[in-house]
């Protein structure tokens, strides 16, 4: 699978580790940057990853910043993106199983290497459950497309 990945300056080192893990797992990686720890604005990189996912250039994306929250807020502004800020194995799994999240947002400051690796693997391996959850995700997609109303 092709995975788009980006971070801010606080997440550069974690991003490098995740890129290596993704390649080790056999995934193709689209790294949108940054390459250095020089200060950057997280929305710039969130939008690059989110647009790659929203346009279908990559089926999934991963974003890393200090908490994962800013990246998530920015990514969710892009049509077709369902970004989730995950902080443990359960939230990583459920974001895929119940919400069909296509962008994983992680904290560079609050999670350890072992937990991050486990979360990334779980998130990549977990399928969307569908069923009643598909109906709910479809309501989000319709609202995003301008179809506001009950349904």
Task: Outline the structure in words.
- By secondary structure, the chain is of the alpha/beta class.
- It has helices at 12-24, 42-54, 69-75, 89-97, 113-125, 132-144; strands at residues 2-7, 28-31, 60-65, 83-85, 103-107.
- It has a five-stranded parallel β-sheet, sandwiched between helices.
- The longest helix has 13 residues, at 12-24.
- It is globular, with a radius of gyration of 15 Å.
- The model has no long low-confidence stretch (mean pLDDT 96).
Task: Describe the structure concisely.
The model has no long low-confidence stretch (mean pLDDT 96).
How does the SSE layout of this entry go?
Layout: E1 2-7, H1 12-24, E2 28-31, H2 42-54, E3 60-65, H3 69-75, E4 83-85, H4 89-97, E5 103-107, H5 113-125, H6 132-144
Parallel strand pairs: 1-2, 1-3, 3-5, 4-5
Uncertain spans:
none
Q: Could you tell me the radius of gyration in angstroms?
A: 15 Å
> Please, what is the average pLDDT?
96
Distance between the termini: 33 Å
Keywords:
5 strands, five-stranded parallel β-sheet, alpha/beta, 151 residues, 6 helices, 16% strand
């Amino acid at each position: 699978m092709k995975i788009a990945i980006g971070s801010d300056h606080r997440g550069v080192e974690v991003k490098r580790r995740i890129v290596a893990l993704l390649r080790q797992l056999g995934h193709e990686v689209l790294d949108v940057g940054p390459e250095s720890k020089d200060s950057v604005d997280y929305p710039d990189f969130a939008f690059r990853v989110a647009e790659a996912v929203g346009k279908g250039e990559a089926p999934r994306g991963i974003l890393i910043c200090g908490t994962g929250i800013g990246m998530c807020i920015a990514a969710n502004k892009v049509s077709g993106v369902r970004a989730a800020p995950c902080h443990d194995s359960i939230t990583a799994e459920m974001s895929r199983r119940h919400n069909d999240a296509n962008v994983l947002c992680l904290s560079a400051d609050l999670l350890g290497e072992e937990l991050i690796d486990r979360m990334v693997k779980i998130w990549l391996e977990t399928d969307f459950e569908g069923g009643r959850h598909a109906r709910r995700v479809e309501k989000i997609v319709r609202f995003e497309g301008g179809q506001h109303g009950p349904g």
